[in-house]
Fold each of these.
Amino acid sequence: MDRVRIVGILNVTPDSYFDGGTYVSVEQAVARAAAMVREGADVIEVGGESTGPQSQDVSIEQELGRIIPVIRGIRHSLPEVVISVDTYKASVAKAALEEGVTIVNDVTAGRADAAMFGVVARAKASIVLMYAKDASARTTVKAMQYDDVVATVRNFLDERKRIAMEEGIGAEKIILDPGLGHFISSDARYSFEILAHLDAFASLGYPVLVSPSRKSFLAGERNLPPSDRLPATLAATTIAVMHGARFIRTHDIANTREAIDTAEKIIHCAD
């Protein structure tokens, strides 16, 4: 089994729920990327627009102005690192791909911009297709209810990967993300159910990416703020790896690497 890869979250935004405003300068962002690589990140994912609840729309020009200098800085300082871009806009993805990005993480799975799949296909890049209850990129706080959340998400991902392949994206370039937190529902039980049945998504035959990092469903009965959700994040990460996740997207690289290494030792003993 290949080693589970860590995707380090690098938000160059003022309003992301955990690290908004921390890495807004190019120098801060590149330094953080270098630190994440030292801690064990395999991929650095640069995001220039928050899509969380109450976040603000960002123009294409604003988003490009935030991410392109950072991508260039990372490419210059860390030429071997894999870079992903977190965007749902085809024109932003195209510009990032031209700068050496090789993965596009689209929280709308290609629904927000019909040109996205063509852009990714022409670049022969990889794409992360994520489930979200909302068709638009801006997620909402809503206690969405499901008769069968696992079947709903699995069917969605199966359909979106089919369309992506019809648009020219190679099967080997597709990564699936079942979504967690408000992207699923503000009712936390559905996120836990997704993690408990992650093998249902892995059985589709594509690598699964999971991003539990400090998300709302981990707040618990005490309604912990994001700053206090690391222990729950690591528990969710370990369960995800043991149930088939191949990528973990996180803010906390060193702790996550330790959790993954432990989970992989347990899996090896069970084989």
Amino acid sequence: MITLCLYQTSNDPYFNLAAEEYFLKNFQENFFLLWRSQPSVVVGKHQNALAEINHDFVNSHNIPVARRLSGGGTVFHDLGNLNFTFIRNVEKIQEVNFKIFTFPIVEALKTLGIDAYTTGRNDLLIEGKKISGNAEHVHRNRVLHHGTLLFNSQLDALKGALKVDLSKFEDKAVQSNRSEVTNIAPYLPEPMGVEDFGNRLFSEISTQIAGSKVYLLTETDLEAIQKLSDEKYRTWDWIFGYSPKYRFKNKFQTEKGEIVLQLLVEKGLLVEVEISGAISETSGKKIEEVLLGCRHDLHAIESRIVIFQDVLHAENISPEYFAGKLMK
């Protein structure tokens, strides 16, 4: 079976994730891909996106949030992080094995003087610190396996974007396991940039694979991937609306006492809203009614409650502050 090898030039996280799905579902050949994305937070398919990200950090740094096709935990991408993808046809479910796909990565790193190894949690480590998280998705007789490789990633940004308070969320979504991480670059015997590292890795792994052939995207590929990116991967419905059902609870103090906020969210929409505590019952009920069916999204909530700014100001609460407490 021919394996098509592609070093993706796009740094658009939505395009890159769409490309994986496109190759998985529209080809019969095996694939090996390398790619990088601009700073972005990528949640697993079965995660609650809102519960996985630090809203203040992500918003202040204009970091986009994306959802991938595979399960597993949330990861941070930037141009110092290299991502690899294997897509392979399988005959038996036993062939869906993480080590089959991490082995060539470990071997390629050895040629660069890096002593990396796998763990039972499907990570790659150097001296006990994580350099790579991996996940898989099976479609019919094809498996997609991908992982990160932290080369010279901004680790402070990674930690800032993924620092969250899960105590406000109650759900059955897959939660991320936070591990101590490190970059590959400091462990190299000889310094090199991420571009050289990517080129060396691509050449080494492509050589390892029998029947490999370098593949270049066609105009048809580009148009199809862009369409999938625009119609699925960039959409709020996929990124946030796909999150499993969850409950959100928060409380805050006002001059009159404590206000408690409780939400039930399904497909990203507020299906139950309960506001209680130090707020008039009439005001609380009015706000509850107008929020039903609203997206659990800061701008959407702000646009709904702006009509109650006089009511909230009477309670000495700003609409912006109130909306923020419904999010984080």
